[in-house]
Design goal:
about 300 residues; alpha/beta; eight-stranded parallel β-barrel; two-stranded antiparallel ribbon; about 15% strand
């Protein structure tokens, strides 16, 4: 098996500050968490931004710029910027920071889908900010829009014009076929880095059988022209990503995907989760990929070719 890439998703846009006091929301917190994750072994850092005043998901380049330069100056990890942002943002808003930063990697959600977060609101009684409860509860009528036209726009603006490679986020089997469609049109090329996403209400469920099926279909569609990684929401995080490591895939951890380090215990840092999965995969006999090894594996343009200064 090749070396294993650990991706760490630092904050995301799903969890809210009332769910954990350790969720990073300010530029200083984002910087500290990201550098710590890189030092613990994460080769790729998947990055969203938040408004530092209230922790609300943000697409503002100003908020991204509060941590991107400092992370780049203090570690060699690959910076992977979201193009998904939040389902409440327009495509133009979601692309504002990535187009300015011209990173080595971007995420790209491979379809329009329901993104239902509202069950989480039932577990919270004390809210820190007034935006959180309606943000979660109103997701019972929320659609994350990413049409074929939207995806072509992202592939053109970030891939063809700015040289970014993609973390193709596939929340269901249908998303694999959509990706194959774009490959057939020549809009993206191998090697593909596909992130199988499990456990988001609106996407495929967090069942081991679903991981096997996603891999089976991806093998059939893409052969040896792709590599896969796995992320799983909440308590499903460690079991499914461990399964990915056993199958020869890569892994993603981070407070975007799960706030916990073990049952009933909140993770205080992203580095804790990186350290935990690193121990597991090394015990399985997998070697950790350093950032430059990940760059070579994924054919990235290199950290010196980005616009983050």
């Amino acid at each position: 098996m090749s070396k294993i890439i650990i991706t760490c998703a630092i904050t995301g846009s799903i969890h809210t500050p009332s769910m954990s006091p350790y969720l990073p929301i300010t530029g200083d917190q984002m910087t500290e968490h990201a550098i710590g994750a890189a030092e613990a072994g994460a080769a790729i850092l998947h990055l969203h931004a938040r408004d530092p005043q209230n922790g609300r998901p943000s697409a503002s380049p100003e908020h991204f710029n509060a941590f991107l330069p400092r992370i780049k100056q203090n570690c060699d990890a690959v910076l992977n910027l979201t193009t998904g942002g939040s389902a409440t943002m327009t495509l133009e808003q979601r692309l504002a920071a990535p187009m300015q930063a011209e990173p080595e990697m971007c995420s790209l959600n491979m379809g329009t889908m329901n993104f239902a977060l509202y069950p989480a609101a039932e577990r919270i009684t004390d809210w820190k900010y007034d935006w959180e409860k309606p943000f979660l509860e109103n997701s019972d009528d929320l659609i994350f829009k990413n049409t074929p036209r939207d995806m072509v726009h992202v592939l053109h603006e970030m891939g063809q014009k700015r040289g970014a490679r993609f973390e193709f986020e596939c929340y269901d089997v249908s998303h694999l076929y959509m990706l194959k469609h774009f490959v057939d049109r020549g809009l993206t090329q191998a090697p593909l880095f596909i992130q199988f996403v499990f456990g988001v209400l609106g996407g495929i469920g967090p069942d081991p059988e679903n991981l096997m099926h996603m891999k089976l279909i991806a093998d059939r569609l893409f052969g040896d022209s792709y590599t896969f990684s796995v992320l799983a929401a909440g308590r499903h995080q460690i079991p499914l990503i461990t399964m990915s490591a056993i199958l020869g895939g890569h892994v993603r951890v981070g407070l975007e995907d799960s706030l916990m380090i073990s049952r009933g215990t909140l993770a205080k840092t992203n580095a804790e989760q990186v350290t935990k999965i690193r121990r597991i995969v090394e015990d399985l006999g997998r070697d950790i990929a350093a950032p430059d090894e990940a760059r070579a594996m994924l054919h990235l343009k290199g950290g010196d070719a980005v616009a983050i200064r």
